[in-house]
Amino acid sequence: MTTDIHIRPATADDIALLADWACAMALETEHKRLDPDTVRRGIRSVIEQPARGRYFVAEREVAFAGRELARVPAGTLMLTYEWSDWRCGDWWWIQSVYVTPEHRRHGVFAALYRHVHGLAEAAGEAVCGLRLYVEKQNLAAQRTYASLGMGDAGYLMYEAGMPWLAKVVK
Fold first, then answer.
1. What's the CATH code of the domain at 115?
2. Cα–chain-centroid distance for residue 130?
3. DSSP string for residues in 108-169
4. What three-state secondary structure class fits 20?
5. Which of 3, 61, 64, 165 registers the highest number of CB atoms within 10 A of its CB?
6. What is the mean pLDDT of residues 11-29?
7. Half-sphere exposure of 53 toward its Cβ, with a 13 Å CA cutoff?
8. Contacts (Cβ under 8 Å, ≥6 apart) of 37
């Protein structure tokens, strides 16, 4: 287990960074350009209204030019909730996953995942499990999720976007 990764809840002080990461992730994985102001408002909404979800930030301890270790932000994920009447509990959806390029392949996502998995287990029957969606072509992410014990749930995802959405996602 990696001991140089620390997970903490995101705060309002993280909004700008989380928005930068969300925009970078959308461009990198889906080739979509997001409106940064909309993304910042969206993140602020989650942080100010915890019933919508919550963000976590992973920090790694890094030494700079022989100096003492310093914690630097390395990645994030957001949880949202979906009620299941079949199970009388919430599915926790993992969303907005991002690990900065220089911190990839160092266990950052695994640490974030284990953190939220532990929170879900501690919540008992109130949480059915963890879910996420992944682009069909993102094979590296699929391998990562499988290595952590997640499996294909067997669903396809459909959506119907509203006309105004085209203004904020290109």
1. 3.40.630.30
2. 12
3. HHHHHHHHHHHHHHHTGGGEEEEEE---TT-HHHHHHHHHTT----S--------GGGGGTB
4. helix
5. 61
6. 96
7. 20
8. none
Taking the CB of residue 67, how many other CB atoms lie within 10 A of it? 8
Mean pLDDT lowest among 63-67, 121-125, 129-133: 63-67
Where are the strands (E) in 22-68, listed by range? 54-63
If you ran DSSP here, which 8-state letter would residue 105 be given? T
Count: domains in the chain: 1
Q: In angstroms, what CA-CA distances link 75 with 12, 26, 99, 167?
A: 16, 14, 4, 27
Structural domain boundaries enclosing 104: 5-167
| Cα–Cα distance, 150 to 142 (Å, whole number) | 9
112-140 burial code (b ≥16 CB/10 A, e <16): bbbbbbebbeeeeeebbebebebeeeeee
Tell me which of 123 and 65 has the higher pLDDT: 123
**Residue 94 pLDDT more than 90?**
yes
Hey, what are 72's tokens? 């630097």
Kindly report the number of other CB atoms within 10 A of residue 40's CB atom.
17
How many residues would you count in the chain? 170
